[in-house]
Amino acid sequence: xxxxxxxxxxxxxxxxxxxxxxxxxxxxxxxxxxxxxxxxxxxxxxxxxxxxxxxxxxxxxxxxxxxxxxxxxxxxxxxxxxxxxxxxxxxxxxxxxxxxxxxxxxxxxxxxxxxxxxxxxxxxxxxxxxxxxxxxxxxxxxxxxxxxxxxxxxxxxxxxxxxxxxxxxxxxxxxxxxxxxxxxxxxxxxxxxxxxxxxxxxxxxxxxxxxxxxxxxxxxxxxxxxxxxxxxxxxxxxxxxxxxxxxxxxxxxxxxxxxxxxxxxxxxxxxxxxxxxxxxxxxxxxxxxxxxxxxxxxxxxxxxxxxxxxxxxxxxxxxxxxxxxxxxxxxxxxxxxxxxxxxxxxxxxxxxxxxxxxxxxxxxxxxxxxxxxxxxxxxxxxxxxxxxxxxxxxxxxxxxxxxxxxxxxxxxxxxxxxxxxxxxxxxxxxxxxxxxxxxxxxxxxxxxxxxxxxxxxxxxxxxxxxxxxxxxxxxxxxxxxxxxxxxxxxxxxxxxxxxxxxxxxxxxxxxxxxxxxxxxxxxxxxxxxxxxxxxxxxxxxxxxxxxxxxxxxxxxxxxxxxxxxxxxxxxxxxxxxxxxxxxxxxxxxxxxxxxx
Length: 596
Description:
Rossmann fold; Helicase_C-like; alpha/beta; 15 strands; 49% helix; 7-stranded parallel beta sheet
């Protein structure tokens, strides 16, 4: 039975289609072994690969590798081979992997179609294909993406062919599938699902008998499912709740100007930087800006975007998984399907363009029923979009992330130095890149570059570069001196604990310290080294800070307008009451004078 499934991110969709595939392949292998119990060669050959049994399509390379790793882990002791086929890696190496005839292939549409169109035998001979999976199908149907999906689907054998036709097509190849011929099972999975009421009727009618479609036909999950040969009796499983977001996700926002986004981002990472954090941007230019700035400020950040080489992207993913407090800055392509343990915080440096992308971004945390926190940095220009997002999720109140403004003077000092350093370094890098580009092209063309500058201009340029280098060195020295000390609020007192005022977090630390002190007095004095407690530094993860001192703000525009209208009416009423009171007093004074 075909399956169309939707569930929130991190709910185990990969295993939902992976386990049935492995189970069926094992069952068929057991039947084959019983039929060939006297033929040792046949029994041995059953574990060395065979025709392609399962083809899994994913929208991104990282997701393909992740799905492949999960299936390999599940099939570690089963002798079932799983191979990833993605772009950005050597095609020759992938062709060598396909020569081993893996039963399961996980890949991206571009590289799969490239190998199919070139006539790769293992990918073209699909007569034994038992499973076809479209993971993150909502991304597959985005306009301008994955035109190869339609071409791959057209290569698939008709799933509604008769058993007699299937036997005839597969009789020339002695495989496990020949022993128990079944119709192909199709899985379509997504984090969101929107199907019409008459979807099953459309499946019965079918897209067309010729199985061809225009590019616009793949404009919805419905059309994609029909094109993939989904049967009318398909099981539709929708486990998404009203919000589609993870149940234990705590959403919040920080309202600031565009210029202050960097300061608030640095505040979160330096004051509350606990656990893995992913920072999402909509543009690569913004990603490069903040990653360069954060590295200058001493925060070791990793990056992942579409213009990086595939090996560099995979290396960044592996390094992010290895570090307990890693920081990854990524674009929206990274938001879909990637599964990381213990991602505590997701920061939206720039708001996404759609609610679907917001769902996938925020779903990188609070996975597998764990807790997590998302923080959106909202500029005045982002307000309308943010309110629209909240409305699409039926949210009337969102917590405002607590920002201690006493830290901002110190943060702005560091940020000012870092921006100057980044500006000078970027300018020098561009000049060096232009020079090297000219030299490379001149050498390739056999030309000799002549120095067009005069002696005076060269001396002036040398002095300017020397001054710039000295300025850069001085700025770096000043910044390093600041970075050697922990970030402290402006009114922080080293002598008096309450010199900076007692914040809710500090008050909670004091309460925990007093409880620990009472417990230590009542218990044996065995572990003296565990009594050290940091007081006065709000170094707790964002989720805890939000739970301790977050404040709910109304984000319903209609309610806000109604509140403003009521407040304005109240002020107008008070003003009229005061005015009438003054007039009454004047009348009383006049009456008193007239009586006198």
